[in-house]
Amino acid sequence: MEVHTLAVDGGIVNSSKFRQILATITNTRVELREMLEVTALGAALLAGLAQGVYESLEEVKQCVKQEVFLITPEECTEYCKDVKRRWMVGIERSLNLAE
């Protein structure tokens, strides 16, 4: 599966350095919405839909129209390659926790 864009939200994406590193080491565009806590907003809006506050999913979608910022990958330096290597080691270790 090829991933072209990562949509991110939550506390850690407050860091512009983290967003740029993420884009660069994954060689993927990172998409950031104006509101950083989109997950919480989405849960609240879907609860409103379930309770009849909103009549349709289309009405809910109108509530979340926000500006989207794109962070594009930069050239991967030696430092970046080292971060990527350590990132992949961490992922491998976490996958082994399930065994």
UniProtKB/TrEMBL annotation:
Entry keywords, A to Z: Kinase, Transferase
Keyword Mitochondrion part of the UniProt annotation: no
Alphabetized GO MF terms: kinase activity
Keyword Transmembrane helix assigned: no
InterPro entries in alphabetical order: ATPase_NBD, FGGY_C
Record-annotated Carbohydrate kinase FGGY C-terminal domain positions: 2-50
Gene3D superfamilies named in the record: 3.30.420.40
GO biological process: carbohydrate metabolic process
Full protein name: Glycerol kinase
Organism: Hexamita inflata
